[in-house]
Amino acid sequence: MAGGGLHSSVFLVMVSGQIESARFPEFDDLYCKYSFVYGQDWVVTSGWEEGISQTTKKSLDRRQVFVFNFPLDITFKSTSPFGWPQLVISCYGLDAFNHDVVRGYGAVHVPISPGSHTREIPMFVPESSSKFQKFVSWFFGRRPEFVDPKVVAQGEGREVTRVRSQGSVKVTFSVVTRDMKKLGYDTEPASVAIPHLASGNSGITTIRPESQMHGAESHS
Fold first, then answer.
1. What torsion, rounded to 10 degrees, do the Cα atoms 106, 111, 115, 119 define?
2. Using CA atoms, how far apart are residues 78 and 17, in angstroms rounded to an integer?
């Protein structure tokens, strides 16, 4: 009986996939770190919450991509879609002085709808606020970077951070959900716009695609 009560009060989101590749044409060597950021109602039940890839070299063909094929595998449980998990990726490499420096930060929500998904994550780096600071940072190998990369998944303070676009990372997801409809949540394909519920008396809350939400909002 206790087990049945538990299963009726939570839903599961199982995520697998891989950090497939990255595009940073101006660099030759690269590795990635990843971590998942999620709300207070979410708990990791199995898998890896963070990790670091191997260092790889840029391909010699026209594509000039870094191939990682680094696996992702994690399972969450929650009672609410608020704070839907995000994947945060930060890429690093060596500069001309052999210093390990950040090459880009980026974040993306785990797709809401079950199935296979591919995401191209635009990356960015913080910028110095003046040319003098930029020169000093370059000279001493202390370029601007975030103390905690997870900050890129948050909105607070981002409007005052000066950044520059740089590169992209390709990620593939395979998502399986369980017991969401039992709790009154209906997930639809991310490509479908959801302006309203089909029936106001259905008792089902439709979750918006991640491209329309900020923290997995829901509406009724």
1. -30
2. 21
Which of 101-115, 127-141, 202-216 is predicted most confidently? 101-115
Quick one: which of 49, 208, 190, 197 has its CA closest to 111? 190
On whether the pTM is more than 0.90, the answer is no
Please state, in angstroms and rounded to a whole number, the distance separating the CA atoms of residues 87 and 73.
12
Model pLDDT, residue 165: 82
DSSP 86: E
Residue range 109-139, pLDDT digits in tens:
999 999 999 999 999 988 655 554 554 455 5
CB 167 within 8 A of CB 104: yes
> Tokens 């697998």 label which residue?
16
Q: Which of 54, 171, 169 is nearest to 110 (CA)?
A: 171
N-term to C-term CA, the chain: 31
Residue with tokens 């026209």: 62
- What is the Cα 96 distance to its own chain's centre? 29
Q: How confident is the model at residue 155 (pLDDT cuts 50, 70, 90)?
A: low
φ, ψ dihedrals at 151, nearest 5°: -60, -25
CA–CA distances in Å: residue 211 to residues 109, 173, 208, 215? 8, 15, 8, 10
